[in-house]
Each structure stands twice: as C-alpha cells, then as structure tokens.
User: Fold this.
Amino acid sequence: MTTMTRRNLLTMIGTAAGSSAMYYAMTTMGHAMPSDYSGPIKLEGDPKGKKILVLGAGLAGMTAALEMRNAGYEVEVLEFREKAGGRCWTLRSGDTYTELDGTTQTVDFEEGNYINPGPWRIPHNHYAVVDYCRRLGVELEPFIQTNYNAYVHRSDAYGGKPMRMKEVLTDYRGHISELLAKAINQDKLDDVVTEEDKELLLESLRSFGVLNDENEYVQSLQTSAYRGYEKQPGGGEGAAPIPSDLLDPSEVIQSRLWTYLATHETMNHHSPMFQPVGGMDGVARGFEREVGDLITYNAKVTSLQQDENGVTVAWEDLAGGGTNTSTADYCVCTIPFSILGQIDHNLSGDLAAIVGSMPYNGSVKVGLEFKRRFWEQDEDIYGGITYTDQAITQISYPSTGYLSDGPAVLLGAYTWRGPNTFKLNAMKPEERVELALEMGSKIHPQYREEFKTGVSVSWHKVPWVLGCSGIWEDRERDYDTAIQIDNRVVCAGEHLSYLSAWMEGAILSSLDAVSRLHAKIINEGE
Amino acid sequence: MKTPFLTALTLGLFTAVTAQAQTSTFAAEDFTAGAYTATDGEALYQSFCAGCHMPDGSGAEGAGEYPALANNQNLEFSAYAAHVIINGQGAMPALGSFLDDEQMVSLLTYLQTNLGNDYEPDATLELVADTRPFDPEEELAEHEIQEQRRMDATGVPADIVVRHAVPGSDFPILSAVEVPRDATLVYLSGTVPQVVDEDADRGSADRYGDTKAQTISTLASIEEKLTSLDLSMGDVIKMQVYLVAPDGSETMDFSGFMEGYVQYFGTDEQPNLPTRSVFEVAGLANPAWLVEIEVVAVRGE
Assistant:
C-alpha cells in the first residue's frame, strides 16, 4: 500500500480517541445525557381555580396547555398562525406558503407527497417526544438516517464522483486497522499497550478492519462482504462472487470523505430514528386533537403586561380584525425571543435583557419532487442521506413509499447557519430550487430529466418566527435567569433548553416550566 | 475575530475557489467558495442583507419585523451599522466573521449612499477593525504561536513549550502541547496514594481515603518527586490517570478525581495545564488503591 504520512494517522487517531474520551468524561459528569425525560409529569395539588394563558401553540405551548388543563387549570392559548404546531410543520400538495417578502409558493406535489421544512426526524432517545407520540396516538415509522448504499461526495475528491458510503467506510476502517496493526507489531505502541493486550488488540483489528491473518487489508471476498463486490454472489451457473478493488489508502485519507461518516454515530442520529407517518406535523396534529379547543388562532400578541393581580395580553385578530385583551393569573410564554423581543412587555430587567439579545440562526431547506424514484430504481438507494461538500450539504431520500411508481419527494438541500444560508436566504424560492437542482445533478445526473416541481423554505424569511432556532450569547451565564418564573410569567421553548432546535428541547423546557409554575401556585398562600 | 458558533461551521467545509458573487441572481459559482468573496458593496448587500431587509431596504413585517434600512437616519454615521453587523443585535446574529474589513467598508458605504440614504460615507478600515470584538485569550494564544514561529524562522532553536488550550472550553486540560526539539523529557513512574489513616485496617478503603483524597495524596507525592528532580508541577505536560470504581459504585469517581486535580492544576499559583487522559481500570496493585497517576515533565522551559 502507499504510504500515509504520520501526521494523517495521528490526526485520525487523535480525533477518534479524543472525542470518545471527552464524551465519556461528559456522560460521567451528567452533561451529555440524551434527554432528562423521566415519564409523564404529575401535577398534583389544588390549582385553586387559577387561569393560565399560554402564548404560542407550538409543541412547547401545546405541551403546557395539555398538562395544565389536566392538572385542573383553566387554560387559554393564543397562536399567531392559522394552525397549530409552530415549526413542527409539513408542506404537502395544495398548501400555499408566503415568505416575508410576499413570495407565495403553491405546493404542487402529488397527493400524499410532502416536505418537512422544520424538524424531520425523531431520535429514539428523545424520550419525551416519543412518549407523547405514544400517548397522543401519533403513528411513527422508521426514518432512515444511515444508508450504506447512499453516497458521500466532495467536488475535489475522486474527480467529483459520488462514492458509495459502504466503500469509503470499509476501506477507511480497513486501512487504519492495518496501520495500527503494523505499529503494534513494530512495538511502536508499547508505551500505551500492554503485552497481554497486544494480541487481543490485533485480534480486534482483524475483526474491526476486516484484516486477513497477516493483519493486512486486501482485496478479498471477505472485504467485499463489507464494501460490496465486483460481482455479487448469486445462484445457478456462474454464480460465484468476484471481489472488488479497494480504494487507495492515501486517497481515502486525502479525500476527506471520512468527515461525513461520524454524523451517523452521534446520539441524535443513532438508529433507529423515527418520523410520523404522513409528515412531521402529525405530532402537532396529535397535540391539537387534545388542546385544539383551547386555541385562538390568528392572534398576534402585541403586548404582555403583568402586575400583582395578573397578566394582561393584548392581541390583534388577524382574521376578524380588531384588538382584543386576554387576562389570566399566570402566563406560559413560548413566543420565540426573536419575536418576544419586539413585543411591548414588562418582564424584569435581567430576563428582558436576555430576550432582547438572543439571535436566531438561519436554515434553508428545499424539497424536490421527481417523476420517479430513480434513486431506488437506478441506484438502489432506499431512504438515508447522501452528504456533499456543496452548499446543499445533503440529499435525503424518502423513508416511505418504497418501490412505488409515480412521483416522490426528496430533501434536496438543507443548510444550517453559515454564509451559504444567508446567500440562499437572499434568493427567491425558485432560485433556491434551481440551485438545488444544479448541485444535486452532480450526484444524480437524472435530476434535470426527472424533475417535476420544488418548494423551498428559508427560516429567516418565515414570518412567524424570523429564524430557525435561538442562539445563546452566553448560555452558561444566562440560562438559569432565562428559565426562572418572572413573577407571573415563565418562558419555554427549544430556545430555553440544551437541545436547541430539537422538538425534545421544546417539550422538556415546557414540562419543566409548568412543573415549577404549578409548584409555585399550589404553595402560594391565598 | 470569529464568534465560536460561526467558526465551527465555516471551518474547512468548502474548497477555496475564487468566485465573483453577484446580486440575488442565482449563480452556482457563488457557492463554491462558501464564504463571501464579493468586494462590491451592492453585491454584498443583495446576497447577504437583502434576505431579511429586502432588496430595496424596505424591511419586512411578520409576527415581528426586520427594520427598514431605506431612509434610515441611523445610517448617518457608519459606526452604528458597523457595530450591529459585526456584533449582532436582538435577533440578528453577529455576522462580522463572514466579511473582512474591506468588505465591511464597501457594504457600509453602500448602505450610507443607497436605498434612499444620502449620507457622507465615513466607514474606514480602522473603524471596522476597532469594532470587532477583542478576545484576550485568543490574542494571547495567537501571540504565543507567532512567537514560536518567529524563533524557528530565524534559525534560533525555539526554547519555549507551546501549550494549546481546548478551544471554546474552560475544562482544565490542554488539547495539545508542543515541546521544543532540544528539551529534556522526564518520565515519572506511576505514583500511587499515600496512607491517610494509619489506624485503619490494611486493605480497608479508609486507609487511603476516597478518590478525591487519593488523588490529592498521589499528586502530593508527584510534586515531591518533581521537586527532588528540580522540577515543579508547572513543568508537567502530559498525564495519564488510572481510576478504579470505588466499592459500591459501578463507575469511576471522575468528579472526585477532578476535585483533587484542580487543586494542583489551573490554580492561581500554578496555572499551567497538562494534556491528559483518564482511564477506568479494573484494579491496581493494592485493592484499596483507587488512583494511580503517571506524568511526563519537561525540563528547561
């Protein structure tokens, strides 16, 4: 095999060892737990006939409404939009959506096809979301995050040709294992590996890296069983398999395609992941079935005031016109700080300062509908994600409806912060769709031929939130202040969690907020 | 000076290819560079700011609003806009890391003289540079690295140890350390805890104390050994720690170890930190030992 520089090797090993060591230390200290949900909350005690006003009917707001009503409170919910769910949102055939600049898109997908502009996958370790889906009868199906037959792609690697993940993954692992085995056999690791561990380590490398008995990673039926064959084993005449060539070790490292392998290994992406059948807003609909009767839609909150007697909220009726006032004893405010910071409120100084200084990051998604599932039919890719260094960053294939004829929708772009997100935000939806086609064609040449229609959402241009998720100026410093009950108002939402931008963060934040609010109310002398 | 969240996202994701950004008219080449490469003020405005503030600067209103930049009196002096763009304000993220000083000046000049604004442009490179946030730690780290390189370049052997902090974290270890080529490395054997309670039975847990107490007595022994070699704790550059789970516990007492560790490293008296690994092991030579520590020190710093 060709030589690999020592720096390359050390970088790889260092990265792997360092991150796992750090992760172990963090879980030991309790900082990186998947979720601190410990089952349904029980709000016991006398709510004393109090009324709770919930601002916002996203997942945080509806969680609060559901739990507070169950506890015996009178609950009223005000929502800016014409429907519930907030960022838990699905665009499907026939929907229209108007961005801040007035550009309206009508979703022209085939009946049943959809795109989730916001959250689109549920980690199994997001226990609260999963539990609410169970309780609310939201049917989940597997979401395919990791597909070994999907691609990893960089414009500057392998001549810009997309590479099957299974090949890059297996060869990356195999070549590293061979190198490590060599180092061990040349006694290079004697200061970190004991004599008795040596043999065991070599044995594990043969297993991990698919090395042969001489500790070499070579072309063989064995390695092909992991990376794919030149010709797959079959039955009948001429059925014997033919092993495939390996990628050059140095080129695998130089390609940097390994950068895309780790995403799948993070807890938020561990298999299995889920999605609601028919679109992510299935979660919102589940909540709405429970608390929809409490929600006033098309209500734009313009003022939030509290004093010793209660909370008073003024709101515009965007549908019927006019200004209304709602009053309550307490308020759970789930309005994103990007909006709340512009509303006339009299929250206390420390909290007000945090509300007024939380930037919201951008994110852009593009949904593309094609006339047929060419990724399945031509390329044997069923669900999963292709990663690329182009601005679109990834292509996610539908995790449902496999083998069906007719049009299907894939996620053709998903940017997250960064300059490209701002560039895309400054473009019209059809320009973003065009860009996604242009870049996606580098991976799937069928794109242009098969394209049917597309839709795009840029979160900085979403009128009711003006961003994708909250960014802390200094979370360590501000978190405890931001989640405190400020006299009669407590704020909640993904922005007030350590699971930013995840639905789990919104629900956990809300559960914690209403639990504290309830404790305060039942313990207050009257 | 980049803010941490932007740095993480812009690091090494895209190939650097020269591309001329244009207005909002789509051009795939604009994206190959990742970062903003345009130097023209209008091109920067239309591909960056216009998304929220609109192409004509009229702003937009939803549940909240994006302020209009057209006919905006706050643009009379560029210092205000420079501050908002670089550091962010309200829901607007800090965007200074996307643009260099020249691009900032072009953009500010465009804002002051277009979109219905007719002010005397007053943006300068100095103004922009002075508006960028100052991070003392980052400055110091940059200074140290430059110092090291300068000495190498002039052919004089670098004689300082360069300690790289863990970026964006105050966890008291180094992410890396560079040792000059002519330095002497001193390896200490594994050091184990001292008896803290002579009266306790041999082999009993009380004899050596809990993980924290054992960490402290072990580090005290290491300090003694170093002193006898004319070295100090501040010379330690590498540490390997072996911890045993205490009786009745399923895992090692990492936080107990940390409580002892921070009494010796990263203090006001002894601010130096080592690179470090911590391992949980099944057992050590004495069943009552919960801690064993190896260190490497460097002489001649």
